[in-house]
């Protein structure tokens, strides 16, 4: 049993730590297996036993030998465990033996005792906190701080690459962006030991901050020699198991963890006070915003908060009682949706509930997280709905109404792309309380169609209208059906239809209806026609169509909110009416699987920000508790920028996931490199200028589940951009850093700008 993690979780060590020892004298290899909780001295004794003919009077050094390249300094031999020393499974280590009195700058005795030579101690040392694990932490990261001085004269720091340890390009990309953040570089190159928080239960006892600071120092002092971030990855895997192993991960998810972890490790607040949040209560926004930020800083105060955190205004409105709740929340980065990911195209067929026109499909585009109210508004504009008209949304399944969308707040996300949605256009003034649904049915033709009781099948879209009368008769239903079918009348009818009375149709009725194609039949005339006999074969049924009762002229229907009637399309009805208009309803959205994927139209960073700040309803799993209604409500939410940090990070949401599809958007986002002015988006009236310059980009190439990450970073002192592709670093022109692979953008506030410089807007850099 071994203990791991912050809470000392007990685990069974099934696989021992396997190390590959390479003897520098003859390049022979020896495999050594030890528990990761063994002390480092145990490794030295194992080497002495494994490699024969070593004398205890000789001295040896052990080096990290990743990719057959010796590390810049030997591994330490303190009384720490192999786990603390960040030794990994199957790691290559190199053994160098010093014979007799051969001079050595830094040597280790085989007996395991430390033999620190002149100059190996670091000039930059942390204080050891009593009761902490810093004793081992500092030593395991003492990779030879003299290496900071190994850069060649004339070479500037910050141009070192990071070796790929196996699908760690996502980590390398994120680290290069953070390492080249000027505020972080300046901080971690100085003495920050006094700000390490070892008592924070939400942190990593300061170990993550120390590991990151050590790596940053190496990258800024090793010239152009690539650094193997093995020690940092070991710490990362220890405190964030989701990043352990060698699978590909998301650079933005790692960035989010690192920023949050560094904040907790560097939090200046040792004991977080309990603060009860207050509602805005109609107070001025400035007062509420300052109060929220003060409360936040009382619990969270670190370099990360100073540099990366801003504040936005969140407005929630209850759809029932219109209660408005305003809060001001901190943010570390802004996740911007691409406009193509926040909108949805939907096709809906609109029917006339009064039979005044033919059904017509309309395709509209609206916000993906919108509600039925938004869909009705979009359809109203598309079909030129009159002021006194309304729309009733419904889903058609198996040729009958499956459900009505009578709740305007219902999210359109509940509507799938392969469903059939219709909207019934009705007059608000004439709309009654009784809803009449007409389901169409016809009898299949066969060789034995003369047999009675042959199967009848449903077809087409159901027709819906409203009736005002409380006491309905069969004649009233017949008149309503005649109105609904009137737009479907053919321009001519077969002579067979005039031959006589068949299946309940009167010849004079057929003549009169067929000759009035482009004329509306008055209600009085229809009542006169149907006073003799019903024009159609109608049957009263239930919701599941499990029973049918024929409707006669004098039948009295029981009152109810919803009446469902079957209409049998006989040969005579086919002669008079064309059913093709109600057949083959289009689906909401037809996915073109066979269509080749084309490059999507370029969009601007500003359009992404507009989409982020657009008002939208909350999801059903994110309901808001309304203090006035005392219930959870699907409120509408609106975000506004209130305060921006010195370093502003934009995460472009390129990856989308649904139940059936996973997709990456390769849309080219046109973003400014210089003079990104966000003043117009700010709701606070503090008079400050919010102008930013780009200094780093995390790129992702390829598709889901793989691909490759790189980074672009700007050396501020040189005013020059570089491309960091794992261990390979090369200069790149400013005009080449804009690509469709841009995933995370890092901007830095321009603190002093003259009016002449600010006149050079970002338009010139967006072209």
From TrEMBL:
Identify the domain of life: Eukaryota
- Keyword set, alphabetical order: Hydrolase
Question: What is the protein name stated in its UniProt record?
Answer: Ubiquitin carboxyl-terminal hydrolase 10
Species for this entry: Citrus sinensis
């Amino acid at each position: 049993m071994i203990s791991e993690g912050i809470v000392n979780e007990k685990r069974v060590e099934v696989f021992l730590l396997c190390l590959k020892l390479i003897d520098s004298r003859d390049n022979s290899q020896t495999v050594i297996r030890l528990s990761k909780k063994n002390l480092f001295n145990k490794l030295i004794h194992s080497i002495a036993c494994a490699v024969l003919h070593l004398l205890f009077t000789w001295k040896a050094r052990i080096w990290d030998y990743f990719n057959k390249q010796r590390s810049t300094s030997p591994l330490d031999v303190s009384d720490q465990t192999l786990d603390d020393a960040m030794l990994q499974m199957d790691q290559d280590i190199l053994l160098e033996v010093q014979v007799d009195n051969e001079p050595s700058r830094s040597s280790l005795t085989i007996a395991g005792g430390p033999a620190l030579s002149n100059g190996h101690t670091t000039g930059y040392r942390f204080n050891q906190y009593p009761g902490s694990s810093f004793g081992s932490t500092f030593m395991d990261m003492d990779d030879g701080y003299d290496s900071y001085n190994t850069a060649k004269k004339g070479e500037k720091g910050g141009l070192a690459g990071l070796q790929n340890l196996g699908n760690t390009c996502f980590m390398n990309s994120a680290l290069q962006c953070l390492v080249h953040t000027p505020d972080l570089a300046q901080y971690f190159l100085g003495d920050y030991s006094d700000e390490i928080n070892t008592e924070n239960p939400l942190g990593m006892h300061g170990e993550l901050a120390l590991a990151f600071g050590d790596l940053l120092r190496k990258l800024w002092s090793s010239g152009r020699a690539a650094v193997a971030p093995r020690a940092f990855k070991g710490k990362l895997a220890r405190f964030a198991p989701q990043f352990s192993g060698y699978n590909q991960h998301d650079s933005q998810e790692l960035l989010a963890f690192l920023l949050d972890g560094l904040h907790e490790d560097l939090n200046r607040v040792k004991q977080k006070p309990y603060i009860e949040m207050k509602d805005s209560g109609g107070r001025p926004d400035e007062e509420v915003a300052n109060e929220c930020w003060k409360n936040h800083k009382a619990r969270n105060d670190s370099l990360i908060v100073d540099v990366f955190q801003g504040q936005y205004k969140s407005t929630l409105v209850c759809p029932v009682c219109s209660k408005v709740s305003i809060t001001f929340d901190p943010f570390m980065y802004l996740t911007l949706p691409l406009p193509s990911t926040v909108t949805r195209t939907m096709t809906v067929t609109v029917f006339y509930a009064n039979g005044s026109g033919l059904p017509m499909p309309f395709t509209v585009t609206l916000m993906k997280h919108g509600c039925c109210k938004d869909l009705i508004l979009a359809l109203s504009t598309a079909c030129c709905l009159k002021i006194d008209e309304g729309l009733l949304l419904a889903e058609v399944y198996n040729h009958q109404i499956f459900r009505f969308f009578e709740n305007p707040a219902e999210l359109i996300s509940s509507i799938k792309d392969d469903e059939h949605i219709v909207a019934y256009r009705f007059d608000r003034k004439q709309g009654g309380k009784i809803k009449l649904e007409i389901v169409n049915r016809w009898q299949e033709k066969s060789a034995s169609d003369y047999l009675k009781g042959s199967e009848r099948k449903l077809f087409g879209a159901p027709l819906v209208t409203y009736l005002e009368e409380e006491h309905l008769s069969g004649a009233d239903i017949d008149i309503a059906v005649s109105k609904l079918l009137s737009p479907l009348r053919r321009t001519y009818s077969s002579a067979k239809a005039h031959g006589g009375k068949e299946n309940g149709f009167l010849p004079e009725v057929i003549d009169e209806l067929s000759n009035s194609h482009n004329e509306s039949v008055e209600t009085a005339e229809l009542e006169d026609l149907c006073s003799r006999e019903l024009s159609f074969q109608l049957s009263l049924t239930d919701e599941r169509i499990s029973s049918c009762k024929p409707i006669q002229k004098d039948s009295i229907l029981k009152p109810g909110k919803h009446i469902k009637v079957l209409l049998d399309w006989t040969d005579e009805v086919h002669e008079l009416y064309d059913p093709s208009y109600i057949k083959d309803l289009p689906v909401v959205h037809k996915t073109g699987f066979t269509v080749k994927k084309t490059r999507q139209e370029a969009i601007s960073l500003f359009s992404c920000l507009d989409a982020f700040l657009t008002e939208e309803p909350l999801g059903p799993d994110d309901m808001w508790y309304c203090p006035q209604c005392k219930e959870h409500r699907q409120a509408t939410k609106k975000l506004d920028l209130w305060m921006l940090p010195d370093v502003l990070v934009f995460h472009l949401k390129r990856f989308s996931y649904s139940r059936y599809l996973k997709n990456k958007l390769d849309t080219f986002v046109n973003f400014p490199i210089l003079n990104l002015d966000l003043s117009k988006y700010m709701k606070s009236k503090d008079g400050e200028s919010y102008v930013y310059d780009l200094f780093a980009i995390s790129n992702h190439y390829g598709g889901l589940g793989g691909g490759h990450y790189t980074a672009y970073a700007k050396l501020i002192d040189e005013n020059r951009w570089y491309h960091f592709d794992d261990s390979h670093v090369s200069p790149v022109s400013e005009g080449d850093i804009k690509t469709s692979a841009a995933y995370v953008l890092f901007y830095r506030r321009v603190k002093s700008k003259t009016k002449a410089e600010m006149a050079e807007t970002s338009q010139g850099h967006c072209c």
